[in-house]
Amino acid sequence: xxxxxxxxxxxxxxxxxxxxxxxxxxxxxxxxxxxxxxxxxxxxxxxxxxxxxxxxxxxxxxxxxxxxxxxxxx
Length: 74
Prior knowledge:
Layout: E1 22-24, E2 30-32, H1 33-38, E3 51-52
Antiparallel strand pairs: 1-2, 1-3
């Protein structure tokens, strides 16, 4: 199951699990659409391709909670 990280690792933008607009690589490094575009859809951590992250319906958050651990390092 995907971690569904809550923020962009590059700029810190909030990326709620139920919303579109997040991009991930195969290691689940997570970026907003603007940063993914600036990175030319390539993960700066592993060099993998950044793809659209699927959404998780809000009604499933209690049973399958998204991560609350933020990865943005200011």
